[in-house]
Design brief:
Blueprint: H1 4-26, H2 43-56, E1 60-68, H3 72-81, E2 92-99, E3 102-109, E4 114-120, H4 131-139, H5 145-153, E5 161-166, E6 179-186, E7 201-206, E8 211-217, E9 257-260, E10 263-266, E11 269-276, E12 280-290, E13 295-311, E14 323-325, H6 326-329, E15 350-357, E16 363-375, E17 380-386, E18 394-399, E19 402-411, E20 414-423, E21 428-436, E22 440-442, E23 457-461, E24 464-467, E25 469-479, E26 485-497, E27 507-515, E28 531-541, E29 547-553, H7 567-571, E30 579-583, H8 605-609, E31 618-630, E32 640-652
Antiparallel strand pairs: 1-2, 2-3, 3-4, 5-6, 6-7, 7-8, 9-10, 10-11, 11-12, 12-13, 13-14, 13-25, 15-16, 16-19, 17-18, 19-20, 20-21, 21-32, 22-24, 23-24, 25-31, 26-27, 26-28, 26-31, 28-29, 29-32, 30-31
Helix pairs in contact: 1-2
The structure holds 2-acetamido-2-deoxy-beta-D-glucopyranose (NAG) (3 copies) and copper (II) ion.
One 2-acetamido-2-deoxy-beta-D-glucopyranose is lined by residues 585, 587-588, 608.
Domain Copper amine oxidase N2-terminal: 36-118
Domain Copper amine oxidase catalytic: 248-661
Enzyme class: oxidoreductase
Length: 676
């Protein structure tokens, strides 16, 4: 939410590199560079988008610009023919802009250099916020007389106040203006200002007018002390814990993967990796080479984090509205950080940059937005020891190495570590790490024994409450298992009670497959029984007759605890089930809806899916929501050690047998200049 320094840092990068280029770039659209049809928009293309839109609109603010991907058959046909004929489908951009206080959805054809369509959005809600408008909103209280009086009344120094913007959700009203709430914090020698809220004040900012239109100073609460809030190494007092010795990953022959544009090849995997300002990393066209069939087999057409719902559980005036949809309101990609070599990613990592559009339409770069690295963490790929045979004991062990694609997004106080990990076994493992700073509420309490009321959280330090909240991450997983036409199977493990004369057992379980016919068959709440979930290709079987498939192995099970008719739960309606399956539809991308800030939840996965369309033997999309209920604990203060969760997509009768049987142990690395 506060992104002041980064917005201006990104802006500065832009100024130095792109303005100079602007002139000749406009005349160099017909580029000879070979694109992949799913490549994200280049800085040149982003400038082209800005130029084309500015021809018909003088005063535009750009809230989202991204690739409008070609239709799936066009991409697939390009993929199978591009060696022969390099023509890629038309490059199109999709833009969400604010023009004269209206939201526009604009499509631009970059290949023909024209605006294809420009339509005013008349539905509920507003687009992604820009850094620039958040920065402007955050500065308003500092010159607003009632706020200055509130600061003085509390005996605080105005020069030490910093403010942050919060989207306001929707609570049943009809049409509201485009507003934010701004909440302020006290720095005064601290850097971890999120631990030091100036509680009791609510300022409402009208973003179109860019002024404060509502203000309420309701109660005085002490600002939590700065002591113990700093997380920087340079300010910690000794003793330090120095017990660990150094370690590194050393690949003298370089990494085993190659990156060609945005296409990545590693071991048996091949996939396309793009950056999107809303979703962050987008994995496309993941396929795996099957040596037995001597062919590259399709696994996943597209995978990305579609929405991230973070409702807080505090009902007071200053807090009740905090029910964020981070992807659609703040942008997971937009909030991504340049990764720090040797800290965010290991020594053997390779980095990639990403580009997004600033409010004025100019492109900006996030350098090192992704890192890719091979992970060897001492794990075992498979093994067996066989002592029972005559002669020597057989021990066969293979070590596990995988490929990780990482991005870190800092959405205001929280840091989300997003890892897509590819394994030689055919598994794709997604891990989300939560770190960063809790959203803290100032409190009068300094000890738990004083508390006689509902405080909606945990007292973490004196005057410092960590408010209860959830994180629900909804993933769009368009699996194309060996082709487009797939089906979803729920395998229920059913207990069977028996009473047999000749067998002493009383029970066992059996696996019963249910093939989902329509969307309602595939709406699943996890944790209610033992089941397995598969996406299969019902048109293809293994030699022994099993459907070729991939299995979803869910992570920690968390389901929403809010009432179904509560407004934030309507907006976050995609969390009602942990699993959904929809027929592929290019426009159904964002589980919380396309335009979600102050939206009414009328464009969510829950709404699309209520049509109960057919999903059997069709191109289908699996939606999985990973949830965390977060009751803060004292260890989360002043910065939270990473808490991780995730899920796996694992081959299930996809291969004829163990696909890593013939993986050879890599050659042992010789350390240079080392005598041992
Ligand atoms: C541009 O539009 C914003 C609102 O969308 C308005 O506040 C501003 O005055 C406009 N600027 C110009 C130069 O028209
Ligand atoms: C906000 O700005 C608008 C237009 O500039 C003005 O009409 C309105 O009175 C302002 N509101 C406040 C509270 O200053
Ligand atoms: C695709 O999804 C959108 C939004 O749910 C819907 O309006 C449209 O009719 C769908 N298209 C098809 C072909 O089902
Ligand atoms: Cu949390």
């Amino acid at each position: 939410m506060i992104k002041k320094s980064e917005a201006s840092q990104k802006a500065i990068t832009m100024r130095s590199s792109f303005r100079i280029l602007l002139f000749f770039l406009i005349f160099s659209f017909v580029s000879t560079h070979e694109f992949h049809p799913l490549d994200p928009l280049t800085p040149n293309e982003l400038i082209q988008v800005q130029t084309l839109i500015k021809i018909s609109h003088q005063n535009v603010s750009f809230h989202y610009v991204g690739l409008d991907e070609p239709k799936k058959p066009e991409v697939l046909s390009w993929l199978s023919n591009h060696q022969l004929n390099n023509k890629i489908p038309h490059r199109l951009a999709f833009v969400i802009a604010r023009i004269d206080s209206k939201t526009h959805e604009i499509f631009v054809d970059l290949s023909d250099n024209l605006v294809v369509s420009d339509k005013v959005y008349n539905g509920h809600g507003y687009p992604l916020l820009t850094f620039e408008e958040q920065t402007a909103a955050n500065e308003l209280p500092l010159t607003y007389a009632p706020f200055i009086a509130s600061v003085e009344k509390r005996g605080l120094k105005l020069s030490e106040v910093i403010c942050s913007s919060f989207t306001i959700g929707w609570y049943g009203g009809k049409r509201t203006k485009r507003v934010l709430k701004v909440m302020c914090y006290y720095i005064d020698g601290a850097v971890n200002f999120y631990m030091r809220p100036i509680e009791g004040i609510t300022a409402t900012v009208d973003l179109d007018e860019m002024n404060i239109t509502g203000y309420h100073d309701r109660l005085m609460v002490p600002v939590p002390k700065a002591d113990g809030t700093d997380y920087r190494e340079s300010t910690q007092d000794p003793p330090f814990d120095t017990r660990l010795k150094g370690m590194t990953v050393f690949q003298p022959d370089g990494p085993s993967f190659t990156i060609d544009g945005h296409s990545v090849r590693w071991a048996n995997w091949e996939f396309h990796l793009a950056f999107d300002m809303r979703a962050g990393p987008v994995i496309s066209l993941a396929s795996i080479y099957d040596p037995e069939k001597d062919e590259r087999r399709r696994v996943m057409y597209r995978g990305y984090l579609s929405e991230l719902f973070v409702p807080y559980m505090d009902l007071t005036e200053e807090w009740y509205y905090r029910t964020f949809l981070d992807a659609g309101e703040f942008g997971i990609g937009l909030c991504a950080n340049p990764l720090k070599p040797l800290r965010d990613c290991p020594e053997n990592a390779v980095f990639m940059d990403g580009y997004f559009t600033m409010q004025d339409g100019k492109p900006a770069k996030i350098s090192k937005v992704f890192c890719l690295f091979e992970r060897y963490a001492g794990d075992i790929l498979w093994r067996h020891t066989e002592p029972a045979l005559p002669g020597d004991t057989i021990t066969e062990v293979r070590q596990e190495t995988s490929l990780v694609v990482r991005m870190v997004s800092t959405v205001g106080n929280y840091d989300y570590i997003i890892d897509w990990e590819f394994k030689q076994t055919g598994t794709i493992k997604v891990t989300i790490g939560l770190s960063g700073l809790l959203a803290i509420k100032g409190s009068v309490y300094t000890h738990k024994d004083q508390i006689r009321e509902e405080i909606y959280g945990t007292l973490l330090a004196e005057n410092t409450l960590g408010v209860h909240h959830d994180h629900f991450l909804s993933f769009h997983l368009d699996l194309d298992v060996d082709g487009d036409a797939n089906s979803f199977i729920k395998t229920n493990l059913e207990p069977v009670h028996v009473n047999k004369k000749d067998i002493p057992r009383k029970s066992y379980w059996r696996a019963v497959n249910q093939m989902a016919k329509t969307e309602s068959d595939a709406k699943i709440k996890l944790g209610l029984g033992a089941s397995e979930f598969l996406v299969v290709n019902p048109n293809k079987k293994t030699k022994v007759g099993n459907y070729i498939g991939y299995r979803l192995i869910p992570g920690s099970v968390s389901s929403p605890l809010l009432s179904e008719d509560d407004f934030e739960q309507i907006r976050g309606g995609f969390t009602k089930y942990n699993l959904w399956v929809t027929p592929y539809n290019k426009s159904e991308k964002w589980a919380g809806g396309l335009i979600v800030d102050q939206g009414h939840g009328d464009d969510t996965l829950a709404i699309w899916s209520s049509r109960n369309r057919k999903i059997e033997n069709k191109d289908i999309v699996l939606w999985y929501t990973l949830g965390f209920h977060h009751v803060p604990h004292q260890e989360d203060f002043p910065v939270m050690p990473t808490l991780s969760g995730g899920f796996e997509l694992r081959p299930a009768n996809f291969f004829e047998h163990n696909p890593v049987l013939k993986v050879k142990v890599p050659k042992q690395v010789k350390w240079p200049n080392c005598t041992k």
